[in-house]
């Protein structure tokens, strides 16, 4: 079973969802993964389609004309003093668009509180048929594989999952072999990119690379093949922000190069004998 690919919004964050759909379709992706939950970060566009009916209509038209599908939406963050029901409008729109998953991450160090709120997000997502997939981020409250696995066990929700991002996995000094010991049903999709092998010690530099200078697959020092072959999912979402390349090539060409490098890497480094038994294809 071949991998299927989604274009994560951070790869081309300057594209509103309708344009992202066209870019993904023209580049050859199977899905796109729009950022429909506005986070209020400095300089980040607001693509909350629940609050923008015209952009929602345009997104539906783009999907209908190209055949591209939505895989997951983001980002249902868990943070102090949050109210999970604020994510309901985005979930309702995601259901209209046929999405399969909601991406989440934890940005509080109060882990008892985070566990409670993550469970609530899972419960809200269940009637829509969504999984809620937890992404650990090295600078966040849940910052490594062990922390994410503990939360999923504590939450104990059937629609809770684990989303492995290649950049974050490498930067957290995690061991690919540890993935083998986790429940197979946790894995629904993964984020793919590459990055320099050396891990920055300066937090600002770390964030700069994470948000704007990840590398095409095979260019960096991450042992991507050893991670991917342990993730039993056929869906790969390419999250590869590189601001300079996007400016030089344009979003469409950058997205195309992301996909082409990923496919080439998989062909060269993951022959069928090394690929996991895949599940989750649409």
Note the gap between the termini. Answer: 11 Å
- Fourth-tier CATH superfamily name: Divalent-metal-dependent TIM barrel enzymes
Write down the overall mean pLDDT. Answer: 95
Largest sheet: 9 strands, parallel
In which range does the helix fraction lie?
25-40%
CATH architecture: Alpha-Beta Barrel
Number of strands: 9
Number of helices: 10
Biggest sheet: strand arrangement: 3-2-1-9-8-7-6-5-4
Low-confidence stretches: none
Which fold name fills CATH's third level, the topology? TIM Barrel
Radius of gyration over all CA atoms, rounded: 17 Å
What share of the residues does DSSP label as strand, in percent?
A: 15-25%
Q: How many domains comprise the coordinates?
A: 1
Instruction: List the helices and strands in order.
Output: EHEHEEHEHEHEHEHHEHH
Structural class: alpha/beta
- What's the overall geometry? globular
CATH class: Alpha Beta
Question: Care to describe what's here?
Answer:
It contains ten helices and nine strands. It is of the alpha/beta class and 282 residues long. It has one domain: Divalent-metal-dependent TIM barrel enzymes (TIM Barrel), CATH 3.20.20. The chain has a nine-stranded parallel β-sheet with strand order 3-2-1-9-8-7-6-5-4. Strand 5 (101-106), helix 4 and strand 6 form a beta-alpha-beta unit. Helix 1 runs parallel beside helix 2, helix 1 (17-27) packs across helix 10 and helix 4 (111-125) crosses helix 5. It is globular, with a radius of gyration of 17 Å. The termini are close together. 47% of the residues are buried. GO terms for molecular function: isomerase activity. It comes from Propionivibrio dicarboxylicus. This is Sugar phosphate isomerase/epimerase. Residues 23-242 form the Xylose isomerase-like TIM barrel domain. Keywords: Isomerase.
């Amino acid at each position: 079973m071949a991998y299927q690919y989604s274009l994560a919004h951070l790869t081309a964050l300057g594209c509103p969802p309708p344009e992202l759909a066209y870019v993904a379709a023209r580049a050859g992706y199977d899905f796109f993964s729009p950022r429909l939950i506005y986070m209020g970060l400095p300089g980040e566009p607001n693509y909350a389609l629940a609050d923008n009916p015209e952009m929602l209509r345009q997104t539906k038209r783009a999907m209908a004309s190209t055949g591209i599908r939505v895989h997951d939406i983001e980002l249902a963050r868990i943070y102090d003093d949050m109210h999970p029901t604020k994510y309901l409008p985005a979930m309702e729109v995601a259901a209209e668009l046929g999405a399969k998953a909601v991406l989440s991450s934890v940005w509080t160090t109060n882990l008892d509180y985070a566990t409670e709120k993550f469970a609530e997000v899972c419960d809200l997502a269940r009637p829509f048929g969504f999984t809620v997939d937890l992404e650990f981020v090295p600078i966040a409250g849940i910052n490594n594989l062990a922390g994410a696995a503990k939360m999923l066990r504590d939450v104990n929700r059937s629609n809770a999952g684990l989303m492995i991002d290649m950049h974050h996995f490498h930067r957290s000094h995690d061991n690919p072999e540890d993935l083998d010991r986790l429940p197979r049903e946790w894995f629904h999709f993964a984020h793919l990119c590459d990055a320099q092998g050396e891990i920055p010690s300066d937090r600002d530099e770390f964030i700069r690379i994470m948000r704007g200078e990840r590398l095409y697959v095979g260019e960096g020092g991450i042992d991507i093949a050893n991670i991917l072959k342990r993730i039993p999912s056929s869906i790969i979402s390419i999250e590869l922000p590189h601001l300079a390349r996007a400016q030089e090539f344009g979003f469409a060409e950058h997205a195309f190069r992301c996909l082409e490098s990923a496919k080439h890497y998989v062909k060269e480094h993951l022959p069928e004998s090394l690929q996991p038994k895949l599940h989750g294809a649409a």
